[in-house]
Amino acid sequence: MKIEVLGVGTTKFGELWEVSPRTLVKEAVSEALSDANLKLANIEALYVGNMLSGILGGQENLGALFAEELGLFVPAFKIEGACASGGLAVHNAINSILAGVYKTVLVVGVEKMTDYNPGEVVSALMGAGHDEERLAGMTFPGLYAMLARSYMEKYGTTERDLAVVAVKNHHHATLNSKAQFQFEVSVDQVLKSPLVADPLRLLDCSPISDGASAMILGSERQERSKTRKTVWITASSVATDSLGLVGRKDLTSLASAVEAARKAYKMAGVNPQDIDVAEVHDCFSIAEVIACEDLGFFPKGEAAGAIAKGKTTLGQGRLIINPSGGLKACGHPVGATGVKQIVEITTQLRGEEGLRQVKGAKIGLTHNVGGSGAVAVIHVLKNE
Amino acid sequence: MKIEVLGVGTTKFGELWEVSPRTLVKEAVSEALSDANLKLANIEALYVGNMLSGILGGQENLGALFAEELGLFVPAFKIEGACASGGLAVHNAINSILAGVYKTVLVVGVEKMTDYNPGEVVSALMGAGHDEERLAGMTFPGLYAMLARSYMEKYGTTERDLAVVAVKNHHHATLNSKAQFQFEVSVDQVLKSPLVADPLRLLDCSPISDGASAMILGSERQERSKTRKTVWITASSVATDSLGLVGRKDLTSLASAVEAARKAYKMAGVNPQDIDVAEVHDCFSIAEVIACEDLGFFPKGEAAGAIAKGKTTLGQGRLIINPSGGLKACGHPVGATGVKQIVEITTQLRGEEGLRQVKGAKIGLTHNVGGSGAVAVIHVLKNE
What we know:
The structure is a homodimer of 384-residue chains.
Chain A: E1 3-10, H1 21-36, E2 45-49, H2 53-57, H3 62-70, E3 76-80, H4 85-98, E4 104-112, H5 118-125, H6 131-135, H7 140-155, H8 159-173, H9 187-192, E5 195-197, E6 200-201, E7 210-218, E8 231-240, H10 255-268, E9 277-279, H11 285-294, H12 303-308, E10 320-321, H13 326-329, H14 334-350, E11 363-370, E12 375-383
Helix pairs in contact in A: 4-14, 8-11
């Protein structure tokens, strides 16, 4: 499989009260078109990743809505799979290109979450979970707190060990002008922040965010850029698991991510050791620890220790995780996240990231999760 | 393009208060698997078409939800495009097969609408429309009433002319044990039914419905059935138009349907005159009249007259429209509709429909519309 990433763009993530989803999408798409040196007329289909527009805003039919807004009257689709909506949109866009049905496809991930009461948003996000969990009043911090407790019990990991994830990702975000939180936090700050769902504290949790990210994908291009490296997607894989935690045998790993990773490595012909840079779904600090192990980057029980030693930190480690700041510090507009991850890896593999550039990065990976691991999407990218 | 329809199934459509969406999906899938003589283990991916689960029920992530419910832990996706969600799910499932990514794919369309206050449902359905129309208090009967007024003014069509669509589709539904309304209505009954949005009356409108439909698609099969005809999808096309009516030059045609039809005929290598049977998106009587013209079945302004003469009625005409009873009388669980249309055409092309069989049908078409024409999906099928 070889799909070219022709262009990428992203808005700033954050509390963007002054703009609408339409404006966010136009900004991200405009940047992606300009980056690809393409015009709207070159685009043959539009894939939109979004989760909450229906529940929070009563607005569906986002494929047609953004097609109209962009003045791009091509086949348009909304793909939804909770916080993995963006990654799943990319997967389906890729399939349509591999099918030979569309040649050049625009993918947009977008979410507008901060216009609503936070309680409403937390409740809406439970639309990603099992109805029994949802109707019982469970929240996503609560679900991931159970993963954290289970993990801590099994591996002796402490709250302090988990806090290093937030510290690293906040550090990376200080180098990202598009990030929601461009400031450092210390382990002590994380440990002193309010408890949200024991053992997870405020600074263990990704924020509620607005933002849009876009990319243009193609099977081949007549004229290759001579001024920058070409980036290819060499694997796109999806796997599912039980919707709720009650269906799981093990709460210290996400089986969907393990399975999607296995397929992706096989498809791309690479091993975990070949990955230079990854954007993983750190919706909570525990999620990044588990992700690093599910992806085969570290043995079970050892990821938190490796992160603490700087093995995934810019300028220190060999395999850099979440150089953008991740969901934790770059922000997590849920439908946009899976797209933004690929935008970040693309610019990393082109060597365009300046201060937060992972030096010599050749192979990158994205890991996007929906719900508490009900669905996972993995993409592998490489430059040439 | 040649995608085999390996198996199909559908629940009864109607007010199904005693069952959940999960039960509906299981029933439709079980029927499709049995019809295909396949097991769950043969299925490599799941595509779900649904519009309202988020807005009405707060439940998203339906790909993973139904994967879990079926015990089918394969890649799973929800595709949404308002009332075209089912057709768009089929389109993306087909692309994934053409891409060689998945070999045997299950598509499910489902909607559960009658558990809610009808006012809530009418309001939720406006999630398919332009936000300005929605926030102004417009409803879908109101939008289609504007199409009807514009059409009547241009072609001199009367309310009586439109009523024949409902009369025909109710007649067809008397022959369909899965239909929501298995009773005849007369032109006078339509004309005496309460006015919903002038000139559209209650019996011009499709109902609020529950239901699920499923199909299994594949690229090729080792063993072909010797006891029944094989049905192939030979075209799958999508087009978009402005989300709201304010963006349209002409309210007597849906440009998205015209464009999708043009592409579908080209892809399948057929003409409108080759179609023996079609399921079209008759959400309102005027919609079927416009659909028949957009699809090239009759010249502009002549469809209502042709329908009145029985040219599309079972046992009378040569090109039978909506033998299932259509959205009007078979019912319109919105996410299921685009899938059900293909289920109906498949069994028609196999010659399995008994009393409502279109004799000698060889080529069929489905026409599925989202919003007031913002998106249209056309599939062409043939037997062999």
